[in-house]
Amino acid sequence: MKLHSTETFWPIKNAMDTSYPSLNADITTPILIIGGGITGALIAYKLITEGKKVTLVDKRDICNGSTAASTALLQYEIDISLHQLIEKRGFDCAVSSYKNCEKAIFDLKKIIDSIKSDCQFEFKKSVYFCSVKKDIPFLEREFKARKENGFKIKWLDEIELKKQGINGFVAIESESGAVMDPYKLAYDLLKYCTQKGMQIYDRTNIIAFKQQNGKTLAITEDKFTITTENSIHCSGYESTQTLTEKVVDLKSTYALASESFTKVPEVFKNAIYWNTSEPYLYFRATSDNRIIMGGGDEEFHNPEKRDKLLPRKESYLLKQFKKCFPDIKFKLDYSWAGTFGETQDALPYFGKPDSQKKEHYVLGFGGNGITFSVMAMNSIIASLNGTPHQDLEYYKFNR
Fold first, then answer.
1. Model pLDDT for residues 275-307, shown as the tens digit of each residue
2. What global pTM score does this model have?
């Protein structure tokens, strides 16, 4: 599956300084990670720091799947509101998911500091606003649910939003948010892991899996075999090709990056933004004074159809930006299309789909893919050891 199209922003911004070979022989490894994006990189980091021996493969060049197309807004807010998630999954699961997403932002900063990655991580406030009056009661219910559960939030009215340059009626301003360059962090994490002994093979496409004598045999397109005790699928939306259970609805999404401003507009200095539209729009600044926005989502059919819509989506997103931030002139520099997915409860999937196989999955779908992947670092060892963990219950398959 082709996960993004045309020029994406992060690979252009970051020249690769490390290359990895493709697999050209049969190998054996205790743990095999499939997927060399931000999820695979974070899980690899966790396992390497736990002293595990790991091999990682990717069908493309490292970090050139969904990670290259990510706009990397780091929020504890999940694609479903807290009060709706409580109704759907119960109080404990919903509040735990929100709180652990918030914790993940701070855990990620510790990881970044530990490997000294220059991925332009910055803490930001997160502003969730509505541009139509009918959504005001919805935001009021959401504000109440978050306030009752201890989240640091502030209510912004229309006057306060107008002062900031936002065309909206009301908003919830959250203290905990961040932005970063996900491509750079994934790249730095993988480089760190190879320095600690991990083997990486890119341009290595696994086309089949077999079970033999309690081991998993991963067969590559070039007919080489990787024999492993445990495989961990961090292949994101392409996991739909290896799972029998339907866990995600695929969507096409679109993103724009502006030309670099002389200085970033004031409204974007300390905050990231998203709105209550369905599908929602989201906005952030970058360290080189650009603005990135995204949205315009629709059902995914195939990469060709998705990519043909890009010119029309550019026009749509530019108009939406003007409506939301009327005082800022957005001059388009880059645009790209990508594939992402939504689960029924907007939550991730962690663990083993089949308890009889040592095949594990870390699938952080939706707008919280990065924070979900950080959360998975807490339960991956339990999944490998076959021991209980709360997250393996909350985010299990066949739920």
1. 999 889 999 999 999 999 999 999 987 889 999
2. 0.93
For the segment 77-103, what is each residue's pLDDT rounded down to a tens digit? 999 999 999 999 999 999 999 999 999
One-letter amino acid identity for 91?
F
User: CB-based burial of residue 116 (10 Å sphere; 0-12 exposed, 13-18 middle, 19+ buried)?
Assistant: exposed
Q: Please, are residues 122 and 167 in contact by the beta-carbon 8 Å criterion?
A: no
Strand order in the sheet with 153-156: 153-156, 170-174, 125-130, 271-275, 282-285, 291-299, 249-258, 332-342
